[in-house]
Every structure is written in structure tokens, then in C-alpha cells.
């Protein structure tokens, strides 16, 4: 591990926000607030006062990207350190605001507390999984530990959003890449470790996507695809393409060719649940592209293969794929195609069994049901369902529920004279986002 300069410390996973960090760096450099202000004024093309430095350290104001760059140069630290500390300050503010908005002991507070504890626990335990010495030879037991650790990390996504998990996932991916690059092993072990990298890159990509960090998500998915090809792992390569296709749909630019390629890449080697996952994602692309026949065929095939048995174990990254998952996607696809008579019964049935602890996902699925109700001209029912989605989305570190809710709200606006609609419009206006 690199040794830090004496005036700096090595930051842990429990890193400070920008105020305490600036104060520590400034004091370690032996400068007063006025001296730092003078140094910044000399290096920048605009003046800064001691009071402004004080505001930054007290976090009554956060330094802009312009001043982050000059502060990093003056304090001799990477600008990424300061950018990350600003992000943490923003997250702290959001959490404080949510706590103020929520009654003491509410479900949102409990979810955020348990989520923070889970992230902290896994962050603390991960180094023990990947710790190694230069020249160490990796073997099958190391691959098992990496897979086990990755599975534990994956379970966080059941309850937390990408804004909560991305930094941890990206950190673990970087650690594993360094581990595999620096160690010696057989070709089979190298291939297995590279497949783990493909899995972890998909985790990081999904978290970035969920947090609205689309360039980072794309980069991780492409890393995953290349690693999967290097590992000769067709199923993971297909899943990486499926993630990229799903992201394209988000930009309302569905790539049917990419979605089809994702399934064709993996089909011959995939286990039943992997096939079902890729088929349902392909169906979603068909639905957004306005192709009902192709959508129905992909969904029907997914519903069949999810029940098939296979001698091979299913990979952990499809642990959540089951009959209800296919039904949810079926309802969402028929909503997308404006077929409410087909969508509503399916979504009502599945969501009646869907636990509120999966707050992000349930909020998103409820917006599909709300859209279907609007299409069916059941406006008050649509407003009631949207209100439930708003309540679940509060406190979730994901941009996606709020984005989906706003699209429903736009369709409800003409009916604001109705009491349930006016109530949900007011509630949605106060919905915090993840970034």
C-alpha cells in the first residue's frame, strides 16, 4: 500500500465530509483560514475571503467544482478527494432533511439506519476477503471467498439504492482487479477470478445507473463485457449486453438489436433462470420499441423456462428471478404498450404480495400500475397508488422512483381538481431525489 504524505491521512470507508476534511488539511499544512484564502486568491482569477473559507469548513456553503480544483492544488490532495467529501456533505444534508420530514421511529428512518449499518459492516469486512501479499498464489478457495463476498454485497441492492451502495461496489471492484492483476495463479483460476470481476462490474454499473450516474454505469458495463469475454463466460457477457440495452431504454432509445444479441450470446450456455432474465429484459426493450408480438413471445418463453430444471447450479446473480419477477415484468410491458386490461390484474396480484421493505422496486412497479389505471381512466385509483409509491420512495437512494413518479404526476395534472390527485401532487413535489 502506498504511504501517504505526512500532512495527510489515509481515508477509510468512513470518510469525512468536506468541512472537517478542509479544516484538517488546512491545519495540517499550518495555515490559517486567512492564509488559505490569500493563497487561493493568488492562484485563481477571482478573490476569496477568509469568511468564505470559514463557510466551507462549517458547511453553510459547499465549494463549487471551480473552488474544489483550486483547493485541491493549494492543499496538495487529489481533487477527487474533495469532490467525494462534497458528495458526502450533500448526502448528510439529504439524510438530515429526511429525518426532519419523517416521524421518529418511522419505516424510512429504520430502513436508512439498517442500510447504513449493512454498508458499514460489509465495508469493514471486505478487506479480510481480498487481503493478500505480493506474489501470493490464488487458488480455488480464494475464488470461493470472492464469490461469497460478492453475493453478500449483492443482497444490499434488495433494500438500498445505488446512491447508498455505489462507492462500496466500485471500491470492491477496484480491489479485486488489483488482486487478480498482481497475483499468480493457474489459467483456470485466472479465468474464474476474471468472471468475478465481470460480476462485480455489473454490480457497480447497476448501482451507478440507479443513482443516475449514467457515464459511470456504461463504463462499468463495458468493463464487465470485456472481462466476461476474457473469462469465456457467455452468460455474463450476455447479461452485460442486457444491462447496456436496459440503459438505452431509459434514454428512450431502445436497441432491439442489442437486447436480442444479449440473449443470443448466452442462450446456448445459460441456465434456465439466466435465460428467463435475459428474455424478460429483451421483452422490455420490445415493449418500449412498440412491438407487442415480439414482447408477448419473449414473455411467454420466459414464463416457461423459469420453471425448467437443470443439473447445473444457477449463478447467484439470478437468485431473485422467479415466477413473480416474470409476472411483474409482464405487467410493466403491457402498461408500456397501453394495454391496461392486461396489465392491471397482473400487477395488482403480484404487488399485493410484494414486501414494502423492497421500497425502491415496489415504488417503481407501483408507478406502472398507476399508468395503467390512468390508461383505464381510473384517475382516483391511479392517484392512490402513486401516493403509496411516493411514501415508499422517500428515503431511498435512487433517482429512478422519483423520475417514474414525476411521469405519472404529469399525466395526473389535468385532474388536480380531484382531492386524491391534489394530495399526491403536493406530496410528489416534496419528494427528495438521490443526488
Could you explain the architecture of this structure?
Helices cover 71% and strands 0% of the residues. The chain is built from 20 helices and no strands. It has helices at residues 18-28, 33-43, 50-58, 65-75, 79-101, 107-130, 140-155, 162-182, 187-210, 214-230, 234-250, 256-266, 272-288, 292-305, 323-336, 340-351, 359-375, 379-393, 400-412, 419-429. It is flat. 43% of the residues are buried. The model is unreliable at 1-14 (pLDDT under 50). InterPro entries: Cro/C1-type_HTH, Lambda_DNA-bd_dom_sf, TPR-like_helical_dom_sf. Residues 22-82 form the HTH cro/C1-type domain.
Range of strand content? under 5%
Number of strands: 0
Number of helices: 20
- End-to-end distance: 32 Å
Choose one word for the global shape: flat
The structural class is mainly alpha
Order of helices and strands: HHHHHHHHHHHHHHHHHHHH
User: Helicity level, as a percent range?
Assistant: over 70%
Poorly predicted regions are: 1-14
| Mean of all residue-level pLDDT scores | 86
Biggest sheet overview: none
Give the radius of gyration.
24 Å
Organism: Lentzea tibetensis
Domain HTH cro/C1-type: 22-82
GO molecular function: DNA binding
Protein name: Helix-turn-helix transcriptional regulator
Amino acid at each position: 500500500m502506498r504511504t501517504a504524505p505526512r500532512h495527510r491521512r489515509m481515508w477509510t470507508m468512513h470518510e469525512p465530509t468536506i468541512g472537517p476534511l478542509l479544516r484538517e488539511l488546512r491545519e495540517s499544512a499550518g495555515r490559517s483560514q486567512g492564509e488559505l484564502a490569500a493563497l487561493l486568491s493568488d492562484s485563481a482569477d477571482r478573490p476569496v475571503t477568509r469568511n468564505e473559507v470559514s463557510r466551507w469548513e462549517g458547511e453553510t456553503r459547499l465549494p463549487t467544482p471551480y473552488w474544489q480544483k483550486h483547493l485541491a492544488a493549494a492543499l496538495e490532495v487529489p481533487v477527487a478527494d474533495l469532490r467525494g467529501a462534497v458528495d458526502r456533505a450533500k448526502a448528510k444534508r439529504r439524510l438530515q432533511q429526511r429525518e426532519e420530514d419523517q416521524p421518529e421511529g418511522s419505516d424510512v428512518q429504520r430502513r436508512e439506519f439498517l442500510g447504513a449499518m449493512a454498508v458499514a459492516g460489509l465495508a469493514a469486512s471486505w478487506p479480510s476477503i481480498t487481503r493478500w501479499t505480493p506474489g501470493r498464489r490464488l487458488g480455488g478457495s480464494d475464488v470461493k471467498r470472492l464469490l461469497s463476498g460478492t453475493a453478500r454485497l449483492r443482497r444490499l441492492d434488495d433494500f438500498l439504492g445505488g446512491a447508498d451502495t455505489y462507492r462500496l461496489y466500485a471500491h470492491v471492484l477496484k480491489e479485486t482487479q488489483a488482486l487478480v492483476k498482481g497475483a499468480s495463479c493457474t489459467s483456470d483460476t485466472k479465468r474464474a477470478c476474471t468472471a468475478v470481476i465481470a460480476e462485480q462490474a455489473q454490480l457497480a454499473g447497476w448501482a451507478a445507473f440507479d443513482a443516475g450516474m449514467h457515464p459511470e454505469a456504461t463504463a462499468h458495463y463495458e468493463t464487465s463485457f470485456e472481462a466476461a469475454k476474457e473469462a469465456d463466460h457467455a452468460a455474463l457477457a450476455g447479461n452485460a449486453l442486457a444491462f447496456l440495452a436496459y440503459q438505452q431504454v431509459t434514454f428512450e432509445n431502445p436497441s432491439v438489436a442489442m437486447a436480442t444479441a444479449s440473449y443470443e450470446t448466452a442462450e446456448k450456455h445459460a441456465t434456465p433462470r439466466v435465460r428467463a432474465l435475459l428474455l424478460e429484459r429483451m421483452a422490455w426493450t420490445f415493449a418500449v420499441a412498440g412491438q407487442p408480438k415480439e414482447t408477448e413471445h419473449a414473455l411467454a418463453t420466459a414464463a416457461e423456462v423459469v420453471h425448467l430444471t437443470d443439473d447445473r447450479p444457477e449463478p447467484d446473480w439470478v437468485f431473485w428471478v422467479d415466477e413473480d419477477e416474470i409476472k411483474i415484468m409482464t405487467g410493466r410491458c403491457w402498461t408500456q404498450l397501453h394495454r391496461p386490461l392486461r396489465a392491471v390484474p397482473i400487477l395488482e396480484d403480484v404487488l399485493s404480495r410484494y414486501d414494502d421493505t423492497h421500497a425502491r422496486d415496489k415504488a417503481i412497479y407501483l408507478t406502472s400500475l398507476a399508468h395503467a389505471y390512468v390508461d383505464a381512466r381510473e384517475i382516483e385509483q391511479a392517484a392512490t397508488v402513486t401516493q403509496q409509491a411516493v411514501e415508499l420512495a422517500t428515503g431511498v437512494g435512487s433517482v429512478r422512483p422519483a423520475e417514474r413518479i414525476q411521469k405519472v404526476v404529469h399525466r395526473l395534472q389535468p385532474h388536480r381538481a380531484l382531492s386524491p390527485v391534489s394530495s399526491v401532487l403536493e406530496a410528489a413535489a416534496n419528494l427528495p431525489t438521490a443526488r
